[in-house]
Amino acid sequence: MGRIVAIDYGLKRTGLAVTDDLQIIASGLTTVATSELMSFLKDYTQKETIELFLVGEPKQMDNSPSESEKHIAPFIKKLEKAFPSIEIKRVDERFTSKMAFQTMIDSGLKKQQRKNKALVDEISATLILQSYLYSK
Q1: Would you say 52 and 29 are in contact if contact means Cβ atoms under 8 Å apart?
Q2: Helices 117-135 and 96-106, axial angle in degrees (round to 10)
Q3: Residues 78-117: tens digit of each pLDDT
Q4: Domains and CATH numbers, the chain
Q5: The dihedral sign for the CA sequence 98, 101, 105, 111
Q6: How far is 98 from 27, CA to CA, in rounded Å?
Q7: What does the H/E/C string look like for the chain?
Q8: Residue numbers in the chain where pLDDT is lower than 50
């Protein structure tokens, strides 16, 4: 059984989260500059066995795709081409950024620490992954 990697894709930064080998626990992995994302994933997949990529699917309240979907679709095509043997699934990511920010508040992070957008992206990816694990 391989790990699951969740991807909270953004124009500047992308948050990543990963499961353990048994796919029980979701943990934040890192946040990388989106321009370096593919090379990071290539390196990571050489070190770890990845069974599934979960890519956040931003939606409007009426369930229609959000504006950022036009940037995510080309990324998914690249991902499919670079990793043809790894399955890709989409997960609704509505409210994950707000939930990530609330998680930071609830965990007692100071106001200055909560301004760390990279941390918000990583927590968002973790929330995407956790929601998928709950739904399994």
Answers
A1: no
A2: 110
A3: 999 999 999 999 988 765 666 656 665 666 767 676 566 7
A4: 3-135 (3.30.420.140)
A5: negative
A6: 18
A7: CCEEEEEECCCCEEEEEEECCCCCCEEEEEEEEHHHHHHHHHHHHHHCCEEEEEEEECECCCCCECCCHHHHHHHHHHHHHHCCCCEEEEEECCCHHHHHHHHHHHCCCCHHHHCCHHHHHHHHHHHHHHHHHHHC
A8: none
